[in-house]
Amino acid sequence: MKSKRTINWWGPPRKISAQREERKVSWLELFYDLVYVIAVANACHHLAEHQNWEGFLDYVYMFGMIYWGWLNGSLYHDLHGTPGVRTSLMTLWQMVIVTGLVVTLNSSGEQLVYNATIAVMIMQLYITYLWWSVGIYDKVHRVLNRPYTWIYLISFATLFITLFTGEPYTRILFFISLLLNFLPPVATMMIRWKQTQEFSLSPSMTERMGLFTIIVFGEVILGVVNGVSHLQAINLGMWIPFSLSIAIVFALWWVFFGLISDRSCKKGMLFSFLTELTYIPTLMGLGMTAVAFDGLFGYFHHHDPDQTISFPAGFNAAISLFLTGIFIMLFFLEYPPRFKQLKSKIQLLVAVAASLLLTCILFLSHWSLVTLLTVDLLILLVLILSVALSTLFISNEDEEAGSHE
Asked: Would you kindly state where each structural domain of the chain is located, as residue ranges?
């Protein structure tokens, strides 16, 4: 029989029934996120090099799988993580697998798809084991993890079939497996609806998702730097669009973290799941913005009339997708009662900003780089100013109401 000291040293997963206390994000979790910095960069780099429909589909799949892997590892640590050795080892093994996946994606030759598929299958099998293994220590969790175990295994089998198929069936099966990976919460809610009503994203998990967003914002900054580097000559004409680009990144950062960050998700697994799901198009749009920045400067200074990719149009479309994700996400977040009406106004403002950015695409053929960046920045600044004034107006009303009491 194992001694209590041995069990504590090994650190079995925290039971699902254990009360979760508010905690700060650990150094282990931050170290874990570093691997995904590389993975996200790789997905964006792939889209930059393959600017066609197939490249976009590959980007969607790669980004979806990267986010799925990160989300599962992060949720596992948030729900079942302990200071013991087991949690550290489980995190380390996933980091090794993700790093191996990035290595295979950077390989070349006919074996690229085969090697990458094997790496994805290993990650799929490992995350399946991650959730299944909790049931070894926690009998209550065995019932809850069955949808995850079985659906993830079906997804693994789908990936295995791709080893014996060719295009277009391989890509279709990849997307089927990706879709399956996001179905377990739906199955769990269908089977145990009442139990899922008590679940909600913890403040620490909300913070983790904000940190993952910061990772993608880092890629946007890198996209600006890479785009400017294509100009070669450093002069005043270069610093103006560079400054406007950095200002746009900062404005996007403010919009996201001013409206989304530190906002609790509504109670229930349904709202938590929808929030997690909405992060995918939101962050994909942000990643596409990074790619657009990378090619935007070169597009205007070395314009090729036969070029099929319009970076200005892609740039505005990517930012619009990012704002649309924020618009949808606001439905699932909890705001104080006095701010509920304000939230509807904010959503309207975000929707108008996204629509204006899309409308600008109709006029891009007559615009210079500075004009494009200036107009986009003004749209974002008007959005920020409108939200700030609306919030200030509500706060002043509360103060006046309090003074009359």
From this structure: 26-196, 203-394
